[in-house]
Each structure stands twice: as C-alpha cells, then as structure tokens.
Amino acid sequence: MEEGLSEEAIKESEQIMRDEFSLLHNHLVVFKQKQALLVDTLRQLESEKVDLEDTVVDESQRQHENMSGLRQQKSAEGSASGSDDDHDRNDAAEEETDDDDDDDDDEFLDTRDFLSSSSFKSAESEFWKAPYDSDEDEGPLDIEDGMNSCIKSVGSNYPCVMRRKKLPDPVEKEKGVSLWSMIKDNIGKDLTRVCLPVYFNEPLSSLQKCFEDLEYSFLLDQAYEFGKMGNSLMRALHVAAFAVSGYASTDGRHCKPFNPLLGETYEADYPDKGIRFISEKVSHHPMVVACHCEGRGWKFWEFDDGEIFQWSKVTTSIYNLILGKLYCDHYGTMKIQGNQKYSCKLKFKEQSFIDRNPHQVLGGVQDKNGKTVASLFGKWDDSMHYKINGDSRNANGSEPHLLWKRSQPSKHLTRYNLSRFAITLNELKPGLKEKLPSTDSRLRPDQRCLENGEYTKANEEKLRLEQRQRQARKMQERGWKPRWFVKEKGGEAYSYIGGYWEAKEKGDWESCPDIFGQVPTDQNSD
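The line above is the sequence of oxysterol-binding protein-related; the predicted structure tokens follow.
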C-alpha cells in the first residue's frame, strides 16, 4: 500500500477548496452590494428628512405671517364682524376635535413640525417658566403675566436653604477601567460574585436616585393649586409634565448607582421645596425599593382632595456598552391613569439611527369619554409644552405653552454628569450625621469614599459590603422585616407605616441595625 495521497485526490481536494472559496467570495460580494445599497438609502432618507424639515419651517413661517396679516385685517373691519368670524372658527375647531382619533398616527403631526422648526428653539424666552429655581445664582424665573396669583406664589413661602454646588475635590487621581477587560478576565466565573470596581459607579445609591425624580416637585405643587381652583385639566397636564421630568437627569449619566444593602434607608428633608422623603430597600431578592414623600397638598401619588394619578415607567435601554459612544434611551408608552376626570397617554419615541431630533415625547390628555382635550409634546431631556384642543388662540397661530423646562446644568461638571440637584443628595452637612439613623445612604463608606475621591479605599469598602450583602438572602429567609414599610396584603406594593420623622425628632434609632459595620463572626461562618 502506497503512503500519501494520489495526485487525483489532491487535485480533487483543491477543486473543492476553490469552489468553496468562490462561493464565499460571491456571498461577500452580494453582502457588500446590499450594504452599499443600504447606505445610499439611508443617505437619501436623511436628505429627504432635511428637505422636509426646511419645508416645514418655511411653511410655518409663511402661515404665521399670513395669520398675523389676517388678524390685523380683521381688527380693522370692526369688532362685531370679527366676533362672528371668531365664533365660526371656534365651532369649526371644536367639530374637528370631536372627529380626532386618539390612536391615529397623524394626531400629533403638528407636534413633529413644531419640534423640528426653529420656533421650538427661539420662542422659549416667551414661555412661562418655573416660578423658582434651586440655584440662587440664577434667581427666580419669569412667569407668564396672565397666570393666576395662587400659581405665581407657589414656592414663594419656602425657606432658602444653602446647599453645595460641587462635589469635593478628589484625593487621588482616578485610573480608568475597561469594561471589556473586566469581562474577559472573568470568563467562566459566577458574575454575581464578581465585585466591579467603583469606577463604574456614581456617588449615589438607588434610594437617592428615587428622590431625584422629585427634582421638579413644584409641578405637583402647581397641580395641587390648579385642582383647588377647579381646573382639573391643568392639574392633569402638570402631573404629566412631572412624570416626564424625572427622565431629564438621565441624559449623559453613564455610571450606575450603588445597589443598597437590605434595610438601607435614605431621608431627604427639603423645606426649600416643601417636601420630605423617606425610602428603604425592603427586599434583596427580588430587589425592591419602597419610598414615601409628602409635599404641599399631595403625597405619593394622591392629592389631598382624593384625586389619584398612577403610571408606570417606560423602557430604558443602554447602548454601546463595549464599543462606540455609550448612551441611554427611553421609549415606549406611558399611561397616566387618573381616578376622576382626566387621564393621559404619552409616547416616548425610540431613537433611530438617522434621527436628528431624538428624545421626543408626544401624547395627549383624554377625558372619561376618551376624547383628547389637550396635546402634549416636547423632549424628555429638555422641556414639555401643551395645547388645549379647540382653543381659538391656537387656531390663530399662537405659540404653545410651556409646562416644564429642564434646569441649567451644573457649572462644576465631573465625569458623573450629576445635575445641580443630584449634587446635593449625598451632602452631609455639619450636625446632620448625628441625627441620621445608622442605615442612611449618606453613611455608606464606599459611596462616601468615592465621592471624596479615595478610590482605593472605596474599592476595599465596596468589596467588604458586598460580602456582607450576600447574607441578605438568609436574613430574608429568617423572617427579616422592613423597618418603615409594610407589604400590602394580597399585593406586591409596600405602604409607609409612619413614625420615621417622629423617631428622628426624638433621636430614637435603637431599632436600626448597623448595616455598614463589620460582619459578625457567626454570620461569616455560615
């Protein structure tokens, strides 16, 4: 038997290889052609989108000029004739409103035009803005002249509280960490037991992030006042704006908050906003945080007159964790359900590959019959506006009204991109430490070290606390109960049982364990 392969077998093998490479080459050529076609299509769509936006801007300006001329002409013709014409236009507008379908995709066409036009950027100085601002350097913001005096006075009687405007200067120079290298080094390991370095954290806990949603709590104060005046529609509009405003601080925030320990709490007493807040981590598996807040005429989420609004969060996705520019986006439908006259539905538009106008929020307020009585539109990272359907002023081309506008960013930016409000959340003022329970997030050592720029010590403390946290499941199995909240019977929600602020006034924290201390020896041996 001859060793090796025959010449014929070798040629046959070579031919098979050539055929396979030829087939692969043909596939690559087809894929390349498809890619080129897709790129050309995207460029064409982008060009058409730009042309459409320019057309919309020109058309909006032309209509505005025509309506201005029409108003001047009507004014010259006499008041009697003008009143009849206005009445006819109002009737026509109301008839069109009755025919609107809430599920129609074209319902917010004018909203898209408005968001794409230059008027969205240039008209802000004429809009009504929040009655007060948390940064005393900027002073109070202007309010629309026609606003009711009760609404104008919201927040005017709150005391002025000096709060910090920047984080402490770091003690050490921070070293960057690659997430990809972290994943590569831990392949095959139980990732639930891998302690990520504090480089990926921001100096806040999830409990404090819950309170951050209340940065624009003045919207609820104003909603309460509108309800007292009998204006339920404006109350619903302000609640909707508040629900959107909680997403504004997520823009550019790429670091994750610290995961609270079981039983960890956070209190926020902000008399300058008229609110008091308490939160507690009530379950570790699954991770559940309960919170309670009381404001001026409202609490989570009920007004003193019994009107309740309930809503759920939309989907939040984080993109390009490994490669590319890291960013997050919020998308989906938010339904704000009221128990009286009005409810609201808002659509957070998902950001697309070629979207030049991202972060849009579109929606409307519906009455009990499902009729849309007002339109809402804006961006979750910038501002929200509204139009009352059937309002003759809107038919004449007047600008929409501003409900909420995002506060100016901090002048002392760090890589965490914390807002001015978020910078104050972990502040430990002189004398406050002695008044806090041992479970408060401000006393968490790894978080405090990260804020101070003591990165080496922060990593050591984080590892120690995560080892302690692994005892949380056993604590729950042994019958551990939250201190300030109780689980409602037959449901998954938790209710505040009260007593926190009374305990603080007395300095009675005996029932609060030292959760940030060393792990007891008997637990280490488990």
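Note on the example: The longest helix spans residues 7-77. The radius of gyration is 29 Å.
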